[in-house]
Amino acid sequence: MGTNVEVAQLFAVFHDGGRVNEVEDWGYACRGADLAPELCGTLFDLPDAAFDLLYEAGAQHTDGLIAGDITVQACWDADRLDLSRVGMPPDPRRLCTDAAKAVTMRK
Predict the structure, then answer these.
(1) 35-44, long-range: CB < 8 A, 24+ apart
(2) Which of 37, 48, 71, 88 could form a disulfide bond with 4, CB atoms 3.0-4.6 angstroms apart?
């Protein structure tokens, strides 16, 4: 089974939603993930299993993990591939999927 695209799209919305700044902001991942249950059922709906993936991806996206469900891995890779926006090039060792690692090899 492939990636749950709806979860990945919602991850893009929520994962940095708890940020107050781009520098030192401990706890922002969980604050962003905590927005999802507040809005689930009003702004979006997900089956419980998909919601669990969304929450896991958001709450743990700063923990440096690489193992997990393919949807969660895709979310983490998307975030890590975008770290160049804050001057941090992606580190292939911190990416989860072969597809994401291949992107860093092309640069």
Answers:
(1) 36/10, 44/10
(2) 71
58 burial type by CB count under 10 A (0-12 exposed, 13-18 middle, 19+ buried): buried
Single pTM value for the model: 0.90
Distance of CA 55 to the CA centre of its chain: 9
Q: Could you give the CA distance from residue 48 to residue 79 in angstroms, rounded to a whole number?
A: 23
- Whole-number pLDDT of residue 4: 98
- pLDDT value at residue 22: 78
The stretches in the chain having pLDDT less than 50 are: none
